[in-house]
Design brief:
mainly alpha
Length: about 150
């Protein structure tokens, strides 16, 4: 089974992976309800408005780091004889923490004040939302890395 990092560095697959990641983000944002969901949807609209293609560029810029963070968890799944979706679901908190380490660092270094401010406002509730996204993320990983 190829590692996630090997997979995302394959130029023939990278664009499709990025497109699928953006679809996952769009689906997660659309699935949010209530007042919190309204805030997330509004923030996402603001971030998407930074410039055309911003979300694709952001995903492209984060993809290698996310892969490095999640590869050890995918390896653990294989060692335990579990599928990535099954293992990630059982370890939602660890998966979320691994992803948030990257986004926290990137947000702190962002040159886009709107992006940075929006992230800071949403960060307190981010872990729960990332945990909610784990099943979609795991299926996407499985799609590209299963042998």
């Amino acid at each position: 089974m190829p590692t996630m990092l090997e997979t995302v560095q394959d130029p023939t697959k990278r664009k499709a992976i990025i497109a699928d990641c953006v679809t996952v983000i769009d689906e997660e944002v659309a699935s949010k309800g209530g007042l919190g969901g309204m805030a997330i949807k509004a923030a996402y609209k603001v971030v998407k408005g930074v410039k055309p293609g911003f979300i694709n560029e952001a995903v492209d810029g984060l993809l290698d780091d996310f892969s490095r963070q999640l590869d050890p968890l995918a390896k653990e799944a294989a060692e335990k004889g579990k599928s990535v979706p099954e293992y990630f679901e059982a370890n939602r908190s660890r998966v979320a923490d691994a992803l948030l380490v990257i986004t926290d660092g990137r947000a702190q270094r962002s040159r886009h004040a709107v992006v940075k401010g929006t992230y800071e406002k949403l960060r307190p509730s981010a872990k729960k939302h990332v945990e909610d996204a784990v099943p979609r993320v795991a299926r996407l990983i499985d799609k590209y890395t299963s042998a």
